[in-house]
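Most newcomers find our protein records easier to grasp once they have seen one. There is nothing in a record beyond a sequence line and a structure line. Getting from the letters to the tokens is the skill we practise here. An example says more than a description, so a record of this kind follows:
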Amino acid sequence: MAGVGNSSFPDGLRETQTQVYVETVHQVVQQLRDGQVGGVKWNKIAVVGFSIGGIVANSISAQYPSDLNAILFQGISWDTTWVFPAFISGLQAPAAQIDPERWGSISPLYETQSTREGRETPNFYGSFDRGILETDFYYRDFDTIGAAISFTYHLVDAPEYRGPVFLGIGE
């Protein structure tokens, strides 16, 4: 997805909203199914989504139910009473301020968590191996303001999706 990992860093408000991610993944799936990537037509496609990636997979299953054959959700919840407040309660801050050496050159519209607790609140629940949280915090990436504002509109039911779903969030 644009704006995460080693991708480009487009405008963190307007160009990195959740629907942009959904449309991008949908286009990639269509190219895979049509054989436009490596000349091989893919007839089975599974997606593993963590955090915003899981929300994108959920939205794809609702908007394009035949795109995916299986989905694994990790580190997400549909309980908007606490997920969205995690973003606006100060659990996230500009990544460039949190780790200037690592992220000092990116726009303040790209945010991440400054503490392990801030990472745990939106992504983990219940009984889980605490070592996973440590590893996740060390390798954490960032979100954008655009994704944070728009993702709650993608926490929807997908009644037309017929593939298997695995939801891994702790207990």
